[in-house]
Design brief:
homodimer; about 200 residues; alpha/beta; Helicase, Ruva Protein, domain 3; Dna Topoisomerase Vi A Subunit, Chain: A, domain 2; 2 domains; 8 helices; 6 strands; about 10% strand
Chain lengths: ~200, ~200
């Protein structure tokens, strides 16, 4: 628009680059920032800078943390013989929030996707193999996403990990709890049937 | 969660204060900020600081702008005899985007809301009256929101402005373009009927 302030336009454009923020939300957030008390926008600015400054990928598992190794790799109370392989640091947080897993992690940094030109060299795959080769790991749980690229990645890893003599498992596919059977898609329903367990 | 990095937690909390950002979006944006190139988060930080620094309310119409008076008040090509009264700076942007109005504005900074303790003294009402008293204004268009508080504000302003001998109008209520009649609420439908025009 012709009359907008250049600084405001710049702020709205910067906000629009964030994921899930469309033009309307960016405008709403920009005006909120302009009208909120100065301490609040200063807190946001310093939080962004501090996070960029402090948070690094753990040199063992590549989970984003303030310390290296990350608190999970440092925690000797956790099962040191199991690695859960995930695509992203956010998946680690989701798993930790669920609270059922007490082993170690390995963050790949994505999934294999030949169409997007993402090959094994673009992910932390050799680092995973190196951890397994050290001999302490007994089981690798492949918890990549139940998507095409996640499944391809899991298949690729499974093939190579089995050769190293380690137990390889894939997290179960099935019906999410709290949903209705009639709403499930066919692929999920087939996988839920195949993965049925005796009661 | 027990293992999150303190800097990350702080960033997620700061992001959650923004309007329309829930816990999931805040987490997604925080990880995006951590993984984006440093220039991108630096651009966001400097855009926030610059906007806070440069953008001020215009001393005439209270629209947020980099200059004082704002570009709209400075533009002598605009109709200097009409003021459109809106609640918020974002309403000015919406009006400018629509492009149909070529007069001046007055941003009240909210609406009268006795329940929330917002009275005439909390809004830029006396400043509006002062502008009208200077004698150049011929029409005041009340474009406060079509909500209870917006209507109360419009009624309050209309009463006092009429005494000053200025023409006072209210923007039309009716069916939004592109919607279906059967989906309109009863109040809107009644107002649309009352406001019907000869074709």
């Amino acid at each position: 628009m012709p009359y907008s302030s250049p600084s405001l336009t710049k702020l709205i454009e910067a906000l629009r680059k964030l994921p899930g923020i469309g033009p309307k939300s960016a405008e709403r957030i920009a005006f909120y920032i302009l009208k909120s008390p100065p301490q609040e926008s200063e807190a946001l600015v310093s939080a962004i800078m501090e996070a960029r400054w402090n948070v690094k990928a753990c040199s063992i598992c590549f989970f984003l943390a303030d310390t290296d190794p990350c608190p999970i790799c440092q925690d000797k109370a956790r099962d040191q013989e199991t690695i859960c392989v995930v695509e992203d640091s956010r998946d680690v947080i989701a798993m930790e929030r669920a609270g059922a897993y007490k082993g170690l992690y390995h963050v790949l940094g994505g999934a294999l996707s030949p169409l997007d030109g993402i090959g094994p060299g673009d992910l932390r795959i050799s680092e995973l193999f190196e951890r397994v080769r050290q001999g302490k790991i007994k089981e690798v749980i492949l918890a990549t996403n139940p998507t095409m690229t996640g499944d391809i990645t899991a298949a690729h890893l499974a093939q190579q990990l089995k050769v190293m003599g380690v137990k390889v498992t894939r997290i179960a596919h099935g019906l999410p709890v709290g949903t209705e059977l009639e709403l499930a898609d066919e692929v999920t329903l087939n996988l839920a049937l195949q993965g049925r367990r005796e009661m």
